[in-house]
Design goal:
The protein has 20 helices and three strands. By secondary structure, the chain is mainly alpha-helical. The chain folds into two domains: 2-113, no CATH class; 122-358 and 375-467, no CATH class. A hairpin with a 6-residue loop joins strand 2 and strand 3 (108-112). The longest helix is centred in the middle third of the chain and has 34 residues, at 276-309. The model is unreliable at 1-26 (pLDDT under 50).
């Protein structure tokens, strides 16, 4: 295998001696699209690097005095867990995916790190059940309707933000919106609407509904990654200032504090020094849930895929595409198991550190999400990124306005937004940053997002098509 840098000057291609025999097999345009091979390609080594970074973050964030103490009063440790892997990806030390070229044939071989897959499919469901064993479901319902209101506000913000962003860019730089037929930019933006209201299944449904040119689809995935991750970073920074934000919003956080206090009180009552038996039971609960969730998802996803495919109406069929997603069923089943176990004696395992184990898994998940972000990609397609940023800015503005009007806490704003934009993989991350017991709130809202994602995205797309030049 031979690494080939993606960022190559056209005039210097001939200087790369080790590719002289392969340039004839690949045209220059294809070569320039190749993702560069990082310094570290082994997942085992990358994983070690990520957990060392997490260990350093926790070590420095627990300093009670000095510069580190002041630093972490401004920047949350969860944000650093996201930022450091992003920096490592940006400077080429690690990468979520890369390309190599076979010496003998010049064939491009695509490689992809499996760390995010493992973290999202193995560690996330385990974290959900471990962090919510001590869940007080009645107290969650007592949080009131503001959580749902803020989630729906976030949905409306995405639906309206898309056409507003397209309209603004059509005036400033109409060339960004060029293209007709399958190449029309508004068709590609429909996939962003599906992703930012629902999730990956909804995004794929929009690609099918509007028939966007799949050769151009990568640019939309790129905008999705860049803008969604920038917004998640902003939300994480805001968590460190949530008290000041809540004060400005004049919000009532009593229900949230009551839930946190209940869980904290229960944890203190059952707290004990965990034995090896306790730890093995926690492992059994966490990864037993993972196994059962995947087993059930592998049965349900194909079953519902067949049912959905048999629906005659294309619109209805694509609306329920998410039912064929194994990730949707995995998260849903893990959440159901979590809630059921919270009514059993298993909830006393919180005293052995169940939520702490879950927190470890969440931080690893955050690190793998961070490594998907190349900060320099922001400059690769300024026009489309500008649409995404304006779109997300309107979403954020609407959330702030409504939160101010109904005096909703920042927790509802952040989780309601992330349940839309980030989905089930990242909504519990933001929720648990406030308190481990709140992770389920993020999951429940995100699952609801799957249900409304395609319908909301279709409405958004119709509006974007109307205002497109």
């Amino acid at each position: 295998m031979v690494p080939y840098p993606r960022l190559v000057e056209k005039g210097n291609v001939e200087k790369l001696d080790y590719l002289d025999n392969m340039l004839a097999l690949l045209n220059l345009e294809e070569i320039e699209k190749l993702a560069p091979e990082p310094i570290i390609t082994q997942d085992t080594v990358v994983f070690g690097l990520l957990v060392i970074a997490l260990g350093a973050i926790f070590y420095t964030s627990n300093k009670k005095t000095g510069g580190w103490h002041k630093f972490y009063k401004i920047v949350p440790s969860l944000f650093m867990a996201y930022l450091i892997p992003a920096i490592l990806t940006t400077i080429g030390v690690i990468a979520p995916e890369w390309d190599t070229i076979a010496n003998d044939s010049g064939t491009v071989i695509h490689h992809k790190s499996s760390l995010y897959y493992v973290a999202s499919r193995f560690l996330l469901p385990a974290a959900l059940v471990l962090m919510t064993l001590s869940l007080d479901l009645k107290a969650v319902f007592n949080l009131g309707p503001k959580a749902l209101i803020m989630f729906l506000t976030g949905t409306v913000g995405i639906i309206l933000g898309g056409p507003i962003a397209v309209f603004i860019i059509s005036i400033i730089h109409p060339e960004t919106l060029s293209g007709a037929g399958p190449d029309a930019v508004w068709r590609g933006l429909s996939t962003l609407a599906g992703s930012w209201i629902g999730g990956g299944a909804n995004q794929t449904a929009m690609l099918e509904i509007y028939g966007y040119n799949q050769k151009l689809y990568g640019s939309m995935v790129f905008v999705d990654i860049v803008v969604a991750n920038i917004w998640m970073a902003i939300l994480l920074i805001g968590i460190g200032k949530s008290a000041k934000i809540d004060k400005w919003l004049n919000s009532d956080t009593s229900a949230i504090e009551e839930l946190k206090n209940k869980v904290s009180k229960f944890s203190a009552e059952v707290e004990r020094n965990p034995s090896l038996t306790d730890m093995m039971i926690l492992v059994a609960i966490g990864f037993g849930t993972v196994g059962l969730s995947h087993f059930s998802a592998n049965l349900l996803a194909p079953y519902f895929t067949k049912i959905v495919q048999d629906i005659s109406s294309p619109m209805i069929r694509n609306t329920f595409t998410f039912l064929g997603s194994s990730f949707f069923w995995m998260i849903s089943i893990a959440t159901i198991i979590s809630i059921i176990l919270s009514f059993t004696r298993a909830r006393k395992m919180e005293g052995a550190g169940a939520s702490k184990f879950g927190g470890v898994f969440i931080y690893i998940l955050v690190a793998t999400i961070g490594m998907k972000m190349d900060l320099m990609l922001i400059f690769d397609n300024i026009g489309l990124v500008a649409i995404g940023l304006i779109w997300m800015a309107f979403h954020a503005l609407l959330l702030v306005v409504v939160a101010k009007l109904i005096k909703a806490p920042y927790f509802f704003l952040a989780v309601g937004s992330q349940a839309n934009v980030g989905g089930a993989a990242s909504a519990p991350i933001v929720a648990s940053a406030f308190h481990p017991s709140l992770a389920t709130v993020g999951v429940l809202l995100a699952v609801f997002g799957y249900a409304v994602g395609t319908v909301g995205a279709i409405l958004c797309t119709l509006l974007m098509q109307t205002v497109s030049p």
